[in-house]
Amino acid sequence: MPRLPTPTDFPPSLHLDIIPPPNNSPPINILLLLHGLGDTKAPFTTLARSLNLPETACLAIQGLHPIPQIFLDSEPSTGVASSGVASSGVASSAFHWGDDVLIDEGKGEIEMDSGFEKTREVLGSVVRMLMEGCGFPARNILFYGFGQGGMAALCLISSSSSPNPPPPLSTLEFGGVISIGGRLPSSSTSSSAKCKTPILVCGGSNSTQITRQAIDGLKERFGTVEYVRWEKRGDSMPGSREEMLPLMRFFARRLRSRVGVPEGAVEV
């Protein structure tokens, strides 16, 4: 029987919020929420509560590294902004998941794909704690990432490097990954066997990270890839019921329940 994690399960250097299931019921599933480039965990803590997923605890995790103030004091074109906190180009705090802060000189923006080695190591230890310390099967662990946070989740789940202890996470079937505007990082390791974890990736109809090339790369690495193309510019978070519906359907298919699968539903 899984248990709700506590702050003492994780290193003090890792900043996260633990959101229990609705009505404080015992958790069956756990959802890890990873914010975008230039944000904090706060909006995703709010998101976790608003999702109100039954029998599902949530961890809203903050990016491992603060963005240097020099970038936060610059013009909005630096692109340190994903889900609102730093959208004006100025913020008191903003974090990222990359190994470094790199600038795309062509776009004048911070590059999202800046290496995820440290993030993969830290998130891997979080997942191992949830599995071995809290009793969550891999199948009951899901991820929701926005932008660079989605890239971090995809990098973690597709990793074929062997942790201590093994097996590699890419050989396990997790509950799933939802990535909003986050593609597979270029540094992701390849493998002859496709990852078993199903993913849902969503993006805009133009000015998007989710290009045809990005989709092809995901299909090469994952066995089950669902792509939703929103008719809007860019890769912002879902802003309507219509945009949110594919995400809720994905949750309905992949979340486990003590009461079983409702009549007429299909579990995959």
UniProtKB/TrEMBL annotation:
Residues 95-211 form the Phospholipase/carboxylesterase/thioesterase domain. InterPro entries: AB_hydrolase_fold (IPR029058), LYPA1-2/EST-like (IPR050565), PLipase/COase/thioEstase (IPR003140). This is Phospholipase/carboxylesterase/thioesterase domain-containing protein. GO terms for cellular component: cytoplasm. GO terms for molecular function: carboxylic ester hydrolase activity; palmitoyl-(protein) hydrolase activity. It comes from the Eukaryota. Belongs to the AB hydrolase superfamily. AB hydrolase 2 family.
